[in-house]
Amino acid sequence: MTTFNIFLFLIVIVAFLLIVVIMVQNPKGGGLSSSLGGGGTQQLGGVQKTTDFLDKSTWTLAGLLLVLILLSNLSIMDGEVSSVIDTEAIETPVTPAPAVDTPAPAPTTNEAQE
């Protein structure tokens, strides 16, 4: 397994986790932060601590995603990934030889022989 494939796998996992964390949040104050801490202030750390955790995890996952994308780009630039761009499959175009003008044969008709 190449380095690029490992980075690709990690990027997909981090992107999925980032989607889940963002979908849990609600911009109007609802979401997981209000449902877990809505009844009492000490339930699972309260609303403020849940919001802080979701906010920090969003920024952490977004930063990790950016770093993984940059590192995967470096692994491509190092030339480790030969399956992404196969240079042997790219052929140089072959120019055809110029056509040679040959004279057309003279018409043979019965009228010319009479």
Structural class: mainly alpha
Q: What is the 3D form?
A: rod-shaped
Summarize the main sheet.
none
Distance between the termini: 84 Å
The tally of strands reads 0
SSE sequence, one letter per element: HHHH
Q: Residue share in helices?
A: 55-70%
Q: What is the alpha-carbon Rg in Å?
A: 34 Å
What is the averaged pLDDT score? 74
Total helical segments: 4
Oligomeric status of the shown chains? single chain
Low-confidence stretches: 39-43
Strand content: under 5%
Features:
single chain; 114 residues
Structural write-up:
It is a single chain. This protein is mostly helical and 114 residues long. It has a domain at 44-81. It has 4 helices and no strands. It has helices at residues 3-24, 32-37, 46-77, 110-113. Helix 1 packs antiparallel against helix 3 (46-77). The longest helix has 32 residues, at 46-77. It is rod-shaped, with a radius of gyration of 34 Å.
How would the blueprint of this fold be written?
Layout: H1 3-24, H2 32-37, H3 46-77, H4 110-113
Helix pairs in contact: 1-3
In short:
By secondary structure, the protein is mainly α. Helices cover 56% and strands 0% of the residues.
